[in-house]
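1st attempt posting a full record on here, be nice pls
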Amino acid sequence: MWSEHFSLRSVKYCSFAPPPPPPPPRKIKVLCLHGFGSNAKSFEQSLATLQHSVANNCSFVYLDAETTPCSLISMFSAGAPTNGKCWWRMSPANHGQGWMNSLDQLMDFLNEEDIDGILGFSQGAAMVTVLLAELA
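the predicted structure (as tokens):
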């Protein structure tokens, strides 16, 4: 008889859990390049409203240029000390000195970080153009 060979005690029950929900989509990571005489912190403060409005979808990474501007920046800051940086020096005597170093800095950064987009202001926007030409 069937009951002699099989009992409900020997039946193992399987439960199937629903699959876990998919992970949330990764935020778009945007590299931000400040303008001449500015710096990463200042540019971040300038973009605070934008950052807040897209916080669910984007994250922003701010990078300081390594070059210190020539004395021209002193004229705009009324002689006050500034932490301003530039992607290259803007002086006829310097002939754009520093842009190759800045390009190397950005290429190294992009090789280390997973960046989806780049936003630049003023000299930073010009540096984006130089960077895109190098990557093309």
